[in-house]
Amino acid sequence: MIKYFSKDSILESDSFFRRNLINCLSGYKSLNLIGTQDSTGKTNLAPFSQVFHIGASPPLVGMLVRPHTVKRDTLENILETGFFTLNQVTPEFYKEAHWTSARWEGSEFEGTGLKPEYFEDFPAPFVKDSPVKLGCSLVETQTLKVNQTILVIGSIDHIFVEEEGLRTDGSLDLNVLETVTVSGLDEYHVGKKLARLSYAKSDREVEEI
Amino acid sequence: MIKYFSKDSILESDSFFRRNLINCLSGYKSLNLIGTQDSTGKTNLAPFSQVFHIGASPPLVGMLVRPHTVKRDTLENILETGFFTLNQVTPEFYKEAHWTSARWEGSEFEGTGLKPEYFEDFPAPFVKDSPVKLGCSLVETQTLKVNQTILVIGSIDHIFVEEEGLRTDGSLDLNVLETVTVSGLDEYHVGKKLARLSYAKSDREVEEI
After folding, report:
1. What is the tens place of the pLDDT at every residue in B157-180?
2. Which residues sit opposite A30 in a β-bridge?
3. What is the ipTM of this complex?
4. Longest Cα separation, chain B
5. Cβ contacts of A193 on chain B, cutoff 8 Å
6. Does B79 fall in a domain?
7. pLDDT by residue for chain A (209 residues), tens digit each?
8. Are B44 and B116 in contact (CB under 8 A)?
9. CA nearest B54: which of A189, A25, A158, A105?
10. Which end of chain A is more exposed for a tag (fewer CB within 10 A), N or C?
11. Is residue B199 part of a domain?
């Protein structure tokens, strides 16, 4: 059976119900911990599910930030220092990753017990136990007129990957890396591979590769 | 063992290797088939992995479109008619979903055998077998200065959900709906739930709910 919601019925529904539903509609979302620090070196760590690929050459990543949420520290630190890290999450520490979204007085690293890691003089902390860590620099920000959400675009300057998950063609085996994905606001999953598929051509059906 | 890539080593690497790697770095991505039609009613269907939540009130969705790819028809149709559909993919038809990315002379529906479905006079086709279907209208587009990628923002006007996957709190059980997620350019997965976690507070550890 199919359940239908019109825009009016969504707007009239309970705000908790609406938030849960709308956050699930795009499907599974990427999960990354974003590491930053302010100009005094105080570190911050926050979970983001709206990080996405923008381009491969040069390598660019985008993320959406709400200006008026608890995650504001992340944006302020990025604007202040110009740098941030992205860290994939595994089942070993997804509960600590979720816990970083609480309102902590001090650093989320101290609060949750997640260990920071530094690379040379890069001015943002990485998450030590993450299997895929990116060091990024700010390229530009754009404010979306429609609801003041801020799109942050970063250049991927440093990549650290667990070798066991790196294939010879450059792709990552996210099942081996045990990358966690999130749905809605609070539900976490790992992936279970169906197949890789061949480059699509209209004169033949796609095949598993 | 950790493998390190600097920005320079990424830019100097083989373009196939680079594209595979960079496309995997954000983690699992949402997968949606976007349905559109032109002013003559000719339908188009294309897979997108860069669809994301922008806001819940009003309900807004965003997607990134490259202007110079085979998926250009989608953007042109959206600009022409102002409407599009988003359709989650299941293991039953993920191969056909991938196949829609080939260069088809006619409609991707006819080419791949996926069945279209229409709702009243909404001017874009839905995918009949999809468990989560959204009818959206164009709100605004923004071109990213950095690489001319286009951000399309849509209002979610109609939602169709398989009832078996809709929980009483509004969230969707994507495991039950068998929603497919994609990594990199060509690898498909289903999700396997770890847990839902309680609202995070700094004075207590998060719990499974």
Report:
1. 999 999 999 999 999 999 999 999
2. A181
3. 0.95
4. 60
5. 187-189
6. yes
7. 999 999 999 999 999 999 999 999 999 999 999 999 999 999 999 999 999 999 888 999 999 998 665 557 899 999 999 999 999 999 999 999 999 999 999 999 999 999 999 999 999 999 999 999 999 999 999 998 888 899 999 999 999 999 999 999 999 999 999 999 999 999 999 999 999 999 999 999 999 99
8. no
9. A25
10. N
11. no
Q: Distance of CA A26 to CAs A23, A145, A148, A183, Å?
A: 7, 21, 20, 9
Does A138 touch chain B if contact means CB atoms closer than 8 Å? no
CB pairs under 8 A between A and B: 373
**Number of domains, chain B:** 1
**A207 in a domain, yes or no?**
no
CATH number, domain with residue B117: 2.30.110.10
In a domain, A199, yes or no: no
Mark which residues 33-92 of A lie under 8 Å from B by CB.
Answer: 49-62, 64, 86, 88, 91
Flag if B54 and A149 touch (Cβ within 8 Å).
Answer: yes
Which residues sit opposite B156 in a β-bridge? B136
Which domain covers residue A95, as residue numbers? 18-190
Pairwise CB contact (< 8 Å): A159 & B21: yes
**B149 to chain A, closest Cα gap in Å:** 7
